[in-house]
Amino acid sequence: MKKQRAWAADHDVGERRDAIMRGLNTVLRARGRPGALRMQDVADHLGLVKGNLYYYFRSKEELIYHAHVKCVRVSLEALERVRASRDGPAKRLRTLIVEHILAMTEGEYGAVLLEDIEQLTTAHRRKYVALRDEFENGVREIVAAGITQGEFSKQDARIAGFAILGAINWIPKWYRPGGELSARVIADRFADMFLRALRP
Amino acid sequence: MKKQRAWAADHDVGERRDAIMRGLNTVLRARGRPGALRMQDVADHLGLVKGNLYYYFRSKEELIYHAHVKCVRVSLEALERVRASRDGPAKRLRTLIVEHILAMTEGEYGAVLLEDIEQLTTAHRRKYVALRDEFENGVREIVAAGITQGEFSKQDARIAGFAILGAINWIPKWYRPGGELSARVIADRFADMFLRALRP
DNA sequence: GGCTGATTTGACCTTGAAGTCAAATCATAG
DNA sequence: CTATGATTTGACTTCAAGGTCAAATCAGCC
Question: Which pLDDT score, from 0 to 100, does residue A34 have?
Answer without folding.
Answer: 63
